[in-house]
Amino acid sequence: MEDSKPTIPFATMRPHHALCALFFEGKGYSQVFVDNMTAFMADPSQMLQITTGCDALCQACPNNVNGQCKDEAKVSLFDQRTLKLTGTLLQADQPIPLYALCQGVFDAILQQGLLAEVCGKCEWAPLCQGKWQQGDFNPQLLQSDPTGD
Ligand code: SF4
Questions:
Q1: DSSP letter at 114?
Q2: Ligand 1 contacts CB of residue 58 (under 6 A)
């Protein structure tokens, strides 16, 4: 009998994009990017496959050039830091729901005051850091909504 693994049908996601999702407020690199991100975030239960290359959000980004981010060196560092800080939570071969991924970065990065350490050099960092200071994020993406909504 042939031992063939089925192709994983899940969308892909770079680890650091969980942080982007938690602070997303309808702004982005282009309208197509914003629309894609909005649609993507509408289903927090969707299963995701972790990748450190271009993902489902990059697909609609103008910085994606032939499947490679123009800022790959920078965003790759964001991914590596996210992976390191979340311990064993994120594995390329273990699909995870969007809400669990976001909860993981919430607990290991945001709650620990490490947002600037992970992605402080991002052009969006002032927006995200300002929102975090005000407790303004997307709680519907978490496993348990800390606002109780
Ligand atoms: S900037 Fe780079 S990592 Fe971020 S969404 Fe665009 S292509 Fe992806």
A1: -
A2: yes
For residue 14, how far is its CA from the centre of ligand 1 (angstroms)? 9
Residue 96 amino acid letter = I
63 lines ligand 1 (CB under 6 A): yes
Q: Cα 136–96–143 angle (5° rounding)? A: 40
Would you write out the chain's pLDDT as a tens digit for each of its 149 residues?
455 555 658 999 999 999 999 999 999 999 999 999 999 999 999 999 999 999 999 999 999 999 999 999 999 999 999 999 999 999 888 999 999 999 999 999 999 999 999 999 999 999 999 999 999 999 999 987 655 55
Which run of H or E residues covers position 65?
strand 64-65
pTM for the model stands at 0.91
CB atoms closer than 10 angstroms to residue 38: 12
Nearest CA to ligand 1 atom 1: 63
The pLDDT of residue 1: 47
**How far apart are the CA of 127 and the centre of ligand 1, in A?**
17
Extents of the domains making up the chain: 11-141
